[in-house]
Design brief:
With 169 residues, this protein is mostly helical. The chain has helices at residues 2-8, 12-25, 30-42, 46-58, 65-78, 81-94, 99-111, 115-128, 133-145, 149-168. Helix 9 packs antiparallel against helix 10.
C-alpha cells in the first residue's frame, strides 16, 4: 500500500524503493512481485514489467498461477501471440486446476481463428475445472458463434446436470 500511495502521488522512484524494501523483507511473496509488475506496467515500462514477471516465474515460491497469468496478459497486450501461447502452454501444464489459464488459452486460439484449438482448450479446461462457470459459458459462446447452437445448448445442459447431481448427492 505504501508503494501504491507513492505511485499515485507521482513518485515512481519512491514506489520502487518501497517495493525493493518489501522484496528484501519477503522475496517469496506473490503480492510483492505482482505489485512491482503492476507499478512498471501501468507506468508505461512493459520491458521492466516483463523482466519482473520472468524473475518471479524463475523463483519457485513466487512462481504462481497468477504470475503466469499476468505474464501471458502482458504478451497479449504487447501483441506477441507466440510468446503468449508459449507462456499459456507451460502455465496450463504447471497449474492445470487454474481455470483462467485454460480460458485465456481458448480465447487466444479463438482470436487467431483456430476454432478447433479453442474447442480443445475449453474441453481441457472443463475436464480439469468442472465447476468453472466462465469456462462452460465461454465454451458455449464459442459454439454459438461458430453456428453450433445445439452444441452450445448441450454444453450448458451438461454443466447444469453436473451441478444438480452435486446438489442431490
Amino acid at each position: 500500500m505504501a508503494a501504491k500511495e507513492k505511485w499515485l502521488a507521482g513518485d515512481v522512484p519512491g514506489a520502487r524503493a518501497v517495493l525493493a524494501d518489501a522484496f528484501a523483507a519477503n522475496p517469496d511473496a506473490e503480492a510483492v512481485w505482482l505489485a512491482a509488475f503492476k507499478l512498471e506496467f501501468e507506468s508505461g515500462e512493459p520491458d521492466r514489467a516483463r523482466a519482473i514477471l520472468a524473475k518471479a516465474r524463475a523463483h519457485p515460491p513466487a512462481s504462481t498461477a497468477r504470475v503466469w497469468m499476468k505474464s501471458a496478459a502482458v504478451e497479449r497486450a504487447a501483441g506477441d501471440a507466440a510468446a503468449e501461447k508459449a507462456l499459456l502452454d507451460e502455465a496450463v501444464k504447471q497449474f492445470p486446476a487454474f481455470d483462467k489459464l485454460h480460458l485465456m488459452a481458448a480465447q487466444l486460439a479463438a482470436r487467431q481463428g483456430d476454432v478447433a484449438g479453442a474447442r480443445a482448450a475449453y474441453a481441457r479446461g472443463v475436464s480439469r475445472c468442472p465447476s468453472s462457470a466462465p469456462l462452460w459459458i465461454n465454451a458455449a459462446r464459442l459454439e454459438e458463434a461458430a453456428g453450433a447452437v445445439a452444441r452450445a445448448r448441450a454444453l450448458l445442459e451438461y454443466k447444469w446436470s453436473l451441478s444438480i447431481s452435486r446438489v442431490i448427492s
